[in-house]
Write a structure and sequence with these properties.
The structure is a single chain. With 198 residues, this protein is an alpha+beta fold. It has one domain: minor pseudopilin epsh domain (minor pseudopilin epsh fold, 3-Layer(bab) Sandwich), CATH 3.55.40. 33% of the residues lie in helices and 20% in strands. It is built from three helices and eight strands; from the N terminus they run H-E-H-E-E-E-E-E-H-E-E. The chain has a four-stranded antiparallel sheet, with helices on one face. Strands 4-6-7-8 form a four-stranded antiparallel sheet.
Length: 198
């Protein structure tokens, strides 16, 4: 009578532990990189939205021969939004209806009236903050000039102290680098320059 040897086709506990450790190490390496990518994409989306509003205003001003304005609004969902200041864009309170509106200010009262809206650009403020350097609406003349230099800082605070001013100084640049930041610089002549600092 022959005795049959049965061999197991499974894995030993040591082999399973080694594979589990390798998976944990790979996940530990991948998660921070994935989080960084998500944060960079959030900042890029806001920058692209603001650049799109600026470019639309410049193009419309040039082709129509009329000055265009861009202002921040607290509620972009209403038919005729009301221009507000930039404070809500940099505060920590949640707001899902913020945005920028490109409009033709025919009566030059710095407010949006019926039939003046050209484009609405939503701003999703889930974790991104925005700080505008001069807290005023943007006016673009028919030749594309703005007559004011201004800078928009876009960043994710991520537990760090928020920015109190937005400019091109080294101090602000270093803070923006630590917060996945970017800057959109608008020159007096209407040139738009984006600086990704992450």
């Amino acid at each position: 009578m022959k005795i049959k040897k049965y061999t197991s086709g499974g894995f030993t506990i040591i082999e399973l532990m080694v594979v589990l450790i390798i998976i944990c190490v790979l996940v530990g390496i991948a998660v921070p990189s994935f989080t960084n990518t998500i944060n960079k994409n959030k900042v890029q989306d806001v920058v692209r939205g603001f650049e799109g509003a600026l470019k639309t205003a410049k193009h419309t001003a040039r082709t129509s021969g009329r000055q265009m304005s861009i202002c921040p609004v607290n509620d972009i969902t209403v038919k005729i939004p009301i221009c507000s200041n930039w404070d809500k864009f940099s505060s920590d309170e949640k707001a899902e209806t913020l945005g920028w509106v490109v409009f033709r200010d025919t009566d030059r009262d710095n407010q949006i009236d019926a039939n003046e809206v050209i484009k609405k650009v939503p701003f999703n403020k889930s974790s991104v903050r925005v700080l505008w350097s001069n807290n005023e609406s943007i006016t673009i003349m028919p030749r594309g000039a703005t007559f004011k230099n201004a800078t928009l800082c876009v960043y994710i605070p991520d537990g760090k102290p928020k920015l109190d001013k937005c400019n091109n100084s080294k101090k602000v640049t270093d803070k923006l680098k630590a917060m996945y930041g970017a800057r959109v610089v608008l020159s007096k002549l209407g040139a738009i320059r984006t600086e990704k600092l992450y």
